[in-house]
């Protein structure tokens, strides 16, 4: 099951015209997501979506200017990946019935208890992790596609040597774990029966560092290195 930590790399856009409810839920959602953007109406939500491209949208079905249904229809013209949650007061709402054919991922029926919200967030976290498990993001621009084993910056490929790729995969498999010099030697030079110098390892790490965001690979004194999650 998902948990708070599993959503810490994702962003949320929350649209609710009731300021009291919005304030209360903002605090709750902020404990789950990396960043939460709030909107008071459908038009503002659309503008924030265009600016930030959040991973999840939680929309009140009744909003000024654009309803949750109308906004979802607009977004689904080009975006089928973002998870969308509609909040409504009634399970038989006519607008809710209209939403069946526009690919809404989840529904939240008011009154939304914290348990209901938590259960919904758990489901979202599982879905997001499943859909993103082949993509490793280092920041908003740089990511590694595990399917084709390529590194990208703003969708432009960053060329990796064979050993740089091997080292990156070693770090990814062992994220947030110490990697020793010996680990790197045996993993990246396992096909060559020669003595590997410490300088060769340092040079390889240095070259890979230049292709990743600053402080992604960190020295661990007396041990080796560690790949830090963004």
Automatic annotation (TrEMBL):
The modification 4-aspartylphosphate is found at residue 60. It holds the Pfam family Trans_reg_C. GO terms for cellular component: cytosol; protein-DNA complex. The keyword RNA-binding does not apply. One of its GO terms (molecular function) is phosphorelay response regulator activity. InterPro entries: CheY-like_superfamily (IPR011006), OmpR/PhoB-type_DNA-bd (IPR001867), Sig_transdc_resp-reg_C-effctor (IPR016032), Sig_transdc_resp-reg_receiver (IPR001789), WalR-like (IPR039420), WH-like_DNA-bd_sf (IPR036388). It comes from the Bacteria. GO terms for biological process: regulation of DNA-templated transcription. Residues 133-229 bind DNA. Residues 11-125 form the Response regulatory domain. Keywords: DNA-binding, Phosphoprotein, Transcription, Transcription regulation, Two-component regulatory system. Residues 133-229 form the OmpR/PhoB-type domain. Transmembrane segments: none annotated. This is Two-component system response regulator. The lineage of its organism: Bacteria, Pseudomonadati, Campylobacterota, Epsilonproteobacteria, Campylobacterales.
